[in-house]
Amino acid sequence: MFLALLPFALVIAVYAFGSAERLAVNPNDKLLPGWTSFVDAIDRMAFQPDKRTGNYLLWTDTYASLVRLFAGVASATLFSLIFGICIGILPIMRATFAPFIAVIAMIPPLAVLPILFIVFGLGETAKIVLIAIGVAPFITRDIALRVEEIPREQIVKAETLGANSWQIITRVVLPQIWPRLIDSVRLSLGAAWLFLISAEAIASQSGLGYRIFLLRRFLAMDVILPYVAWITLLAVIIDAALRLFQKRAFPWFAGGRS
Amino acid sequence: MTTISIRDVWKEYDDQVVLERVSLEIEPHAFVLIVGASGCGKSTLLRMLLGQEQPSRGEILIDGTPLPPEPGPDRGVVFQRYSVFPHLTVRENVTLGLEFGQAPIAGRLFGGARKRAIAEAEHYIELVGLEQAMDKYPSALSGGMQQRLAIAQALITKPKVLLLDEPFGALDPGIRADMHELVIKLWQDSKMTVFMVSHDLSEAFYLGTRLITLDRRRNRPEERERYGASITHDIPITRRRENRHRGIKLAEGDVL
Ligand SMILES: Nc1ncnc2c1ncn2[C@@H]1O[C@H](COP(=O)(O)OP(=O)(O)OP(=O)(O)O)[C@@H](O)[C@H]1O
Ligand SMILES: [Mg+2]
Between A210 and which of A3, A200, B31, B157 could a Cys-Cys bridge form, CB atoms 3.0 to 4.6 Å apart? Predict the structure, then answer.
């Protein structure tokens, strides 16, 4: 535990040192603001209403971003689950769609973003679709692979117990896919954040990414750095929550892996 | 009481003949042991009895009617591995067979039906000696316990035929001996016919009422593809039966 904290402490110490050095030379330096500027900035963004809109900006930005992230990842997950299971189970589906999805996965999603803006306008839909398109091919392929990994013996065994195809999917395949789906979503969240912030940077009126790129023009490091730290914290919390949920909801999964 | 007729069955994969001219009449309540070299087609024969694969030629009759072309609840199976469902507890694994049969859409039972199914499952779990592990997941069970679970799970649909493909191949000798006692007891207390693939001749003579050996009659490399294995010996076993009823075990490695 202590060893894990060490690198964090080191980074903070180096920052504090560098910041103090620069501020000693030029008290108005904006690049490495001191702790008091951070406290001011966080207070201003999180606990004082914005003069122009009356909103508490950090919270409205966080809310806007999380809604987009959630909508994008959730729709991608739903699509991928259904499609991935079909591809994993049905040889015809696999033969038809596996190469197609492999190629789709190669398209850099950001290159498609202008098309999305043209088709869906600059509103929320385009951003959500970008996130969904960005992560769905990965999750779909992962789920299809996980389904194919289920030993043939299990399927035959279910048939000897009188199972029909529907029962095999709902009682043998799907329950074993849930925890693996969580793994898959956890792995794709990094990419989802990337697409979210890119889309917000390019066309948005709110959101964490929008704020960072807006304030970049004013070199407002005192706000940008806390925002980055906040985004990181959110990502860590979401990841930890998913992992905890997986452990609680699927105790057999952790036991089988070790 | 179930009779099984295997009539001039061949199995070919692409150009390779795996089994040829396999014919067997199996009397009711037989315990058939199948032995043979690795790769000679023992599992293939079992898969055909299961309905997982179809013979290329010939036919298999069960009580005089052709075997359905897919696995079904009248033929239970235990594989060497992966026979149990890792996401279900011992109790759930065994109850599953009843739920499949009684709840075609939901796949689950509720209320009184569920209680009755669980009580029946627990009976089978006690039969195989796993009552201490009702709520455990398979990953928390030893290899022997997992195979006990697989057997209980297969028995709950009351199959006419139980197919065992090297079910104890991965177990320690001591545990294997316990498993032998268990399957003999379960077989004696039922009417089912058992087919079991084994690599161990002493096991085969100890357990079986009938021993089938599969082998290729021609084994030169250039002939391997074109000639499959067939039955080389078909031995009724009676000598050990008295011993078995008295529960005397054969020493390990005591062959023939
Ligand atoms: N689906 C298949 N497609 C092509 N060839 C197959 C298939 N299944 C089995 N074979 C071939 O059939 C032959 C017999 O296989 P089988 O698994 O029945 O042997 P076995 O007697 O059970 O061997 P072991 O003792 O190693 O389990 C092997 O040569 C194998 O390569
Ligand atoms: Mg085999």
Answer: A200
Whether the CB of B47 sits within 6 Å of ligand 1? no
Please give the distance, rounded to the nearest whole angstrom, from the Cα atom of residue A173 to the centre of ligand 1. 26
Domains with residue ranges and CATH for chain B = 29-52+65-74+160-256 (3.40.50.300), 84-158 (no CATH)
Q: Which amino acid is at A64?
A: A
CB-nearest to A172 from B71, B83, B85 is B85
Q: Which residues of B touch A (CB under 8 A)?
A: 50, 52, 70-73, 75-77, 79, 81-89, 96-97, 99-101, 104-105, 107-108, 137-140, 150, 153-154, 156-157, 159
Report CB contact under 8 Å: A160, B70: no
Burial class (CB in 10 A: 0-12, 13-18, 19+), B178: middle
- What is d(CA B106, CA B97) in angstroms, rounded to the nearest whole number? 13
Q: Which of B10, B12, B13 to mutate to test the pocket of ligand 1 (most atoms within 8 A of CB)?
A: B13
Q: Please, is B136 exposed, middle or buried when counting C-beta atoms within 10 Å of its C-beta (0-12, 13-18, 19+)?
A: middle
pLDDT, average across residues B54-70 = 91
Q: How sure is the predictor about B256, in pLDDT bands with cuts at 50, 70 and 90?
A: very low
**Cβ <8 Å between B107 and A158:** no
Provide long-range contacts, Cβ within 8 A and 24+ apart, for A207-214: A207/A61, A207/A64, A207/A65, A207/A68, A208/A61, A208/A62, A208/A64, A208/A65, A209/A65, A210/A61, A211/A57, A211/A61
Q: Where are the domains of chain A?
A: 57-249
DSSP state of A162: T
Fold of A57-249: MetI-like fold (1.10.3720)
Q: What ipTM describes this predicted complex? A: 0.87
Q: What is the pLDDT of residues A227-243, one digit of tens each?
A: 999 999 999 999 999 99
- How many whole angstroms separate alpha carbon A243 and alpha carbon A239? 6
Q: Quick one: tokens of A84? A: 């991935």
Strand order in the sheet with B4-13: B65-66, B57-62, B4-13, B16-26, B229-236, B210-216, B31-36, B193-197, B161-165, B75-78
pLDDT tens profile B143-196:
999 999 999 999 999 999 999 999 988 888 888 888 899 899 999 988 899 999
Q: What is the pLDDT of residues A147-199, one digit of tens each?
A: 999 999 999 999 999 999 999 999 999 999 999 999 999 999 999 999 999 99
User: Helix A174-202 crosses helix A57-89 at what angle (to 10 degrees)?
Assistant: 140
